[in-house]
Write a structure and sequence with these properties.
Blueprint lengths: L1 H24 L4 H9 L3 H28 L6 H15 L6 H13 L3 H29 L1 H13 L2 H7 L2 H23 L1 H5 L2 H17 L8 H22 L11 H15 L9 H12 L4 H34 L3 H6 L1 H4 L6
Main location: membrane
Subcellular location: Cell membrane
Keywords: Cell membrane, Membrane, Transmembrane, Transmembrane helix
């Protein structure tokens, strides 16, 4: 039954990706999309892939700094290989890459999964904060462009109706608040009973290890270096998107503000819980380029080429890291795939 549910879940996510890709290309001239892809200057794309590789190394070093702060030190290459395997896994199993990379690191460097997962949670929180900052900066720098696009192209005549009728939003917010209060009250009333439950106690132990990883950022020895790698990683992401404009005649003249917009909204697309961001990324990037006057055909061609090149890079780097990690840990592919769910319940010694 569990296997069937997993199959249905991934089939649903794959269907969502397929529907979004269909939405991105439906009604368009496929020959025009193909022409844009053929006319691309791929020398710029090679530069973006080199930058992306540097970004992965920087991100791995930042993760190592977090792990070192928990007193569970791991060699850089073990951290890097585990991270790349996680990215590779996310292309097939959405959001499972985070658990898989922590499981692999436990096998290669004896870092408890709970602690490693806590550092990943912190990493994601930091990324969300950076992304929200980028969103704010993007809107401030080019507010008129986005406002016109949203009101004219996205909402159309529905904008005035939405502005007048806020009742559905208020009702939904009230229901969510009541559910949250009810859950809190139920937990408070049954706290003593929960403390006698073995599963609950294991969850508490796991949570303690998770929190140790989450708060690792407060114990960093070199906070300035951590901030530098955070800045460098996102700078690399920005340069990748901006330099990729040079690949296509249609996007060649877009300015740095457009690059920031593509980075921001493309990142939201990649964060969607589908394999490799396929579908959401393409729709978001195509939509934001449309706001800057780029045709849908040119926009989807840009998204396909950029996403495809990064996917190829992750497959190459992640594949090498996967083989290296398996050889070092002495595990097989089947064992690695079967263990993450069990590993996260292991108590911290």
């Amino acid at each position: 039954m569990k296997t069937l549910l997993n199959i249905l879940k991934y089939a649903l996510l794959l269907s969502v990706s397929g529907l979004l890709m269909w939405y991105a290309v439906q009604g368009q001239d496929l020959s025009s999309i193909g022409r844009h892809v053929r006319e691309a200057n791929y020398s710029w794309l090679i530069i973006t892939m080199i930058l992306s590789a540097l970004g992965y190394f920087s991100r791995a070093y930042r993760w190592k700094m977090q792990l070192d702060a928990t007193k569970h030190k791991a060699p850089f290459w073990d951290v890097y290989h585990a991270m790349m395997v996680g990215y590779l896994a996310n292309m097939v199993l959405p959001r499972m890459g985070e658990v898989i990379r922590c499981s692999i690191l436990q096998r290669t460097s004896k870092v408890p999964v709970q602690v490693a997962l806590g550092t990943v949670v912190t990493e994601r929180v930091i990324d969300v904060l950076v992304l929200l900052g980028l969103l704010g900066g993007t809107l401030l720098l080019d507010f008129n462009t986005f406002w016109s696009f949203v009101t004219d192209k996205v909402l159309g005549g529905r904008y005035d109706a939405l502005a007048r009728n806020r009742t559905p939003l208020l009702v939904a917010g009230g229901i969510a608040l009541l559910l949250l209060l009810g859950l809190g009250y139920a937990l408070f009333r049954n706290l003593e009973r929960l403390r006698q439950n073995k599963l609950f106690n294991k969850a508490v132990v796991f949570a303690k290890g998770l929190l140790a990883g989450v708060f690792s950022v407060l114990k960093l020895e070199h906070k300035g270096l951590f901030l530098f790698h955070t800045f460098f990683t996102w700078l690399v992401y920005y340069l990748m998107d901006y330099l990729a404009f040079r690949c296509f005649p249609a996007t060649y003249s877009l300015d740095m503000k457009a690059g920031l917009a593509v980075l921001t909204f493309g990142a939201f697309g990649m964060a969607a819980p589908v394999a490799g961001g396929i579908g959401p990324f393409h729709v978001m990037v195509q939509g934001i380029l449309l706001a800057y006057g780029i045709s849908k055909e040119a926009g989807i061609a840009y998204a396909l080429v950029v996403h495809g090149s990064q996917t190829l890079l992750v497959v190459l780097m992640g594949g090498i890291s996967f083989i290296t990690s398996m050889v070092k840990s002495g595990r097989t592919l089947r064992q690695v795939a079967a263990e993450p769910a069990l590993a996260v319940t292991t108590d911290v010694e």
